[in-house]
Automatic annotation (TrEMBL):
PANTHER family: NUCLEAR INHIBITOR OF PROTEIN PHOSPHATASE-1. Residues 100-151 form the FHA domain. It comes from the Bacteria. This is FHA domain-containing protein. The keyword Iron does not apply. It holds the Pfam family FHA. Keywords: Membrane, Phosphoprotein, Transmembrane, Transmembrane helix. Signal peptide: none annotated. It comes from Bifidobacterium panos.
Amino acid sequence: MTELTFALLKYGFLILLWVFVWLAVRSLYKDIESFSPRPSRARRRKNRRALKAASAPVAPVMTASEPAQSNLPFGAGPTLLVIIDGPLAGSSVPLGNEAITLGRAASNTVVLDDEFVSSHHARLYRDQASGQWVIEDLGSTNGTVVGEQRLGAPVILPAGLPVRIGATTFELR
């Protein structure tokens, strides 16, 4: 075997080995990314476009000094926040005129013991003008998912629409 043939085989084998390593690392990265609670850039971009295209009306943001009062008669609309999936599955919180906060901190109305939930994750309150329930993400790291879309602004939450915060899913009934 000539030196040239031996050198070509040696470098060809090295190139083939590096291509194999690159493919293995790329495959592992894609597998890890698919199980990550944080969506990939492409999925985030797609979700952002879908959220902008959604026709969900944006509710006005209330300040803490404004009390949450309803113009609807008692019994109209949802009366319970029901946790349907997660560590607190099966529990419920009655909906009154007060805002409901969700998060890891003990000061929240609903305390969610989950590493993917922020200390003050989201707030659920009754809109003064329409009397409907509105959900607002409080700047959480991992976000709040309403239906299949990540929440970007406060939106009116109809009864029966699932909301996911970390491992917990709830809906209004």
